[in-house]
Amino acid sequence: MKKKFMFLAVLVIFSMILAACAPKVETPSPEEPPAVEEPVVEKPAEEKPAEEKPDEEPPAVEEPVEEVIAPLPQGQELANAYAGMYAGTVVTMAGPFTDQDAVVFNDSIAEFEAATGIDIQYEGSKEFEANIMIRLDGGDRPDIVDFPQPGLLQTAVDKGYAIDLETLINPDWIKENYSQAWQDLATMNGMVAGIWARANGKSFVFYPKAKFEEYGYTIPETWDEMMALTQEIADDGDTPWCIGIESGAATGWTMTDWIEDTLLRVAKPEDYDAWVAGELPFDSPQVNEALDYIEAIWFNDDYVYGGRAAIPTISFGDAPKPMFDDPPGCWFNRQGNFVTTFFPEELEAGVDYDFFYLPPIKPEYGKPVLGAGDIYAVFNDRPEVRAVIQYFSTGESLRKWIEVGGAIGVHNDASLDWYADPVTRGVAETIRNATTFRFDGSDLMPGAVGAGTFWKYMTDYVSGTITRQEALQQIDASWPR
What span is annotated as the signal peptide, if there is one (predicted)? Predict the structure, then answer.
């Protein structure tokens, strides 16, 4: 038994030795795929990022700073415009400029458009006065409207269409750049309804200077001297006066200017103001006296080119042209200074033509001057519109027009050096030296009268279809009460 136990012990020990000496075989796990050795690729040594110190703050990120554009005296928007902020925008305008006036206006704004990129689109029409209120009433409102007729602007203000320009232009600039008289004329219903642009004096008689001097005629200083010269020219076999009142829907305004200018010479300025306000009737002694002086010229066929019958058919712009025929077809054209833009281009101011002041009639009323102008009103408020109206409040906006003639700037910053010829400079000086200045009366009357019945019935009167009394009474009856 003991031997048998010893044998089993030796057998167990021998088995253990054999198991220990056998090679080990690894069986892969069913969940893991056998390992595949990849080729070793050497990588360049990477720099270790610097360790951040816990007490060190990250550098501050600078925010972009918005450029601040310094405002101009007229307003912030004009400065923005010159900085290019409104490039590509369009500002619409409507007004009466057509033909040569439209060309000169577009030339006068070209530099501003190029500098700012704003496109000012001016729609001019000879039917402007007849159509503008229809457009405004219908909601078809241009951004800016050029009114040669403040009475029409007053109507737009009464209807609440116009924007107070003291909210669009620096009020201090308006006070600085316009005299009190022009500020008063632009104030309607307690608001600044517009700003004045081009102005015209109207108390001037243009004549062909070279021929005038060749014939030995002398500039008249009084109305009586002017009438004596008129008769002298007629006695020489020539026609003294060039007169035409045709102007599309505005036909007749030339006659109304003659009445206003003459009324200032036979009546007190206060009478003129009362007449403009509707307090002095048209069929009054003062207005009838003015018409007596006018009829003595207009209704004398020896004095007027084409005779009385031709006056309503001749355009106001064509009327002076016979002065420059050889020999002159007529000698005198009473008109505003803007009429020089209708003269032949080859003529030289101060050499081929000149003007004299329409003489006084009654010395006690001094040397009055009748004037007119264009007033710009705003009907839509956008930044680019503000920029444009601010620009129009500067003399620079008229510089080109002043330089070519046909305009006088009422802006205080419009330099006298800009007037390129002695005629226009003389006109400016005449306006400055006037003892009395009054704005065109028909332009200050309610639109229905000043741009309506006054024009119409004066045209009928000149045409001979109604009498003077009938014309005056019809106008009186049309006045809004």
Answer: 1-19
Q: How far apart are CA 240 and CA 255, in angstroms?
A: 17
Provide CATH code, domain 217-371+440-477. 3.40.190.10
Q: Which residue has the higher pLDDT, 307 or 14?
A: 307
Kindly tell me the burial class for residue 460, based on how many C-beta atoms sit within 10 Å of its own C-beta (0-12, 13-18, 19 or more).
middle
Q: Which CATH number fits domain 76-201+372-425: 3.40.30.10, 3.40.630.30, 3.30.497.10, 3.40.190.10?
A: 3.40.190.10
Residue the block writes with tokens 């009268």: 449
Dist. CA 475–CA 481, nearest whole Å = 13
pTM: 0.65
Backbone angles phi, psi at 366, to 5 degrees: 65, -145
Cα(311)–Cα(318) distance, integer angstroms: 11
Q: Scanning the structure block, which residue is given the tokens 């390129």?
A: 420
Q: What is the pLDDT of residue 58?
A: 57
Strand locations in 317-465 (E):
333-335, 354-357, 368-378, 408-409, 436-439
C-alpha closest to that of 429 among 419, 442, 443, 439: 419
Which pLDDT tens digit goes with each residue over 268-306? 999 999 999 999 999 999 999 999 999 999 999 999 999
What's the pLDDT score for residue 434? 78
In the predicted structure, residue 57 carries a pLDDT above the cut 60: no
Q: For residues 390 and 469, what is the distance between their CA atoms, to the nearest angstrom? A: 47
Instruction: Map residue 394 onto helix, strand or coil.
Output: coil
pLDDT average, residue stretch 341-366 = 96
